[in-house]
Amino acid sequence: MTTYDDRASLTDLTTTAERVRRSVEGVIEGKPEVVRLSLTVLLAEGHLLIEDVPGVGKTMLAKALARSIDCSVRRIQFTPDLLPSDITGVSIFDQQRRDFEFKPGAIFAQIVIGDEINRASPKTQSALLESMEERQVTIDGHSYELPDPFMVVATQNPVEMEGTYPLPEAQRDRFMARVSIGYPSPEAELQMLDVHGGLSPLDDLQPVAHAHDIVKLIDAVRTVHVADAVRRYAVELVGATRSHPDLRLGASPRATLHLLRAAKASAALSGRDYALPDDVQALATPVLAHRLLPTAQAQLNRRTAEQVVLEIIQRTPVPTSAGGTAPPAPVGQEPGRPLYHHQQQPGARRL
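Request: output the structure for the sequence above.
Response:
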């Protein structure tokens, strides 16, 4: 367990995250909630899927997050002719040594940007499965550990589906959250013309945090306290997706784990050492919706997975500090100021 002796230590850690957030927001104007979610996924040891129409800054967001951190970065342009060995690496026979030598692929980086991931074949897409879940790559019977921290940021276009291979459920389930950037507001788009009209803002973007700083933040997020009532609340939300009449595939147990980790990271970014039901509510849609498959009837009725998740949130009672439940509160509103913080010894504080 990692403890911090005073409030200054917690402030130092949250200040590091704030520097990264401001750096990314200097490139992605008018989308603070998208930037915060991206940072939340990073601190929760997850992977991010950015899905939106062309030209809204999907790759720009991934690059800005990567360049704001002083760590190794690799970009993979997914194309139909991309091979799995291009991602994982390959063993090559060395004539001088008379032995096989492993040549690492593009996956051996701390932040991996996968651009247009759905344009590669399913065989190539599956090369990411082991690395995203187990943080290692196995080649010719040998396992190679990936660096720490490790995050895959993938982009895809959900509109233009010609010549693409939709991600299978197993692949989508490994992404902690899906985010859609959306079109900017007129004011943000006008500011973008001034900022991006000349040189790209990425050219002047300098790292504001080191990789070891992110590792410290991740270790701190792991120690965030989650009360039993909040854990049960997350389980109830995920479990409701498995029996909903509008869904033919609900969220997996991995989704519950990802939801809990994301809630802890969100609490840490808010300067709290304990998670609230608010954290779970706010992250339920980006964490769960991309894993769900609506039924044919729901699709005919134009019911989306996001609408189903919001309905489940409204129907599921919110736990209270007294151990009971309260009527569901609107997403983002604190339900009755419950006391979910963990009692600790005086002089010690946990992020």
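The chain is about 40% helix and 15% strand.
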